[in-house]
Every structure is written in structure tokens, then in C-alpha cells.
Automatic annotation (TrEMBL):
Belongs to the UPF0145 family. Transmembrane segments: none annotated. This is UPF0145 protein GCM10022231_15410. Signal peptide: none annotated. Pfam families: YbjQ_1 (PF01906). It comes from the Bacteria. Gene3D superfamilies: Hypothetical protein apc22750. Chain B (3.30.110.70). It comes from Gordonia caeni.
Length: 117
């Protein structure tokens, strides 16, 4: 599955648009993470637990987006974006990956091949 943030895919032709696709996950932080983040925010610096939570959320949302696109028959997603929302006074996070599922094919035999991230 090729996933790009651009509206076009260099070296490929969009033959079919399947429509919008989403990957969504909602996660809460555990109590220890909340306490640690509160203390760390007083001293300053990176909140590693929160960074890890967001990284995992994005990976899961991206995988769900790719699965939905593949389920529609697409082999690529263009105009890909992430949206992140904090909820419950910082106790959790929602991550939505979205884009447009498309069917693409390489232009000519000498076209450069893109790889999925």
C-alpha cells in the first residue's frame, strides 16, 4: 500500500478513486503515566510516556487506514493526514488517520517505483 501526503503520486496514474478512508484509535493513559507527566511538566522536558502513546496511536491508526483502503480495492492513499485530539482533561488521546483511497498504476515501464512507508 502506497500512502502519501500529496494529491498526486509521481510516476503513477490514478485510475480510480474509491473515496475517503479513515483509521481511528482512542487510547487513555494509565495512572502512572498521568502522575509522571504531571511531575515532569513542573520540571520541563520531554514526556516520554506521552510521546510513546502518540507514536503507538499513529501506527495503529495508519494500519487501520491501510486496511480500510485495501478493503475497498485500493492500492494507494493520497492526501493522507493525521488529526489528534486530546480528551478527558489530558487523560486520553484520539488519533484519526484519513485520506483518499485510489487505484494507481505505474506510468510506463521506466517509471520509478514508490515504496510504502
Amino acid at each position: 500500500m502506497i500512502i502519501v501526503t500529496t494529491n498526486e503520486l509521481p510516476g503513477y496514474r490514478i485510475d480510480h478513486v474509491f473515496g475517503e478512508v479513515f483509521g481511528l484509535t482512542v487510547r487513555s493513559r494509565h495512572l502512572g503515566s498521568n502522575i509522571g507527566a504531571g511531575l515532569k511538566s513542573l520540571a520541563g522536558g520531554e514526556l516520554r510516556g506521552i510521546t510513546q502513546l502518540l507514536h503507538e496511536c499513529r501506527e495503529e491508526a495508519l494500519a487501520r487506514l491501510a486496511a480500510e483502503a485495501q478493503g475497498k480495492g485500493a492500492n494507494a492513499v493520497v492526501a493522507f493526514r493525521f488529526e489528534t485530539t486530546e480528551y478527558s482533561n489530558g487523560g486520553g488521546v484520539e488519533v484519526c488517520a484519513y485520506g483518499t483511497a485510489v487505484g494507481v498504476r505505474p506510468l510506463g515501464s521506466g517509471a520509478a517505483q514508490a515504496t510504502a512507508p
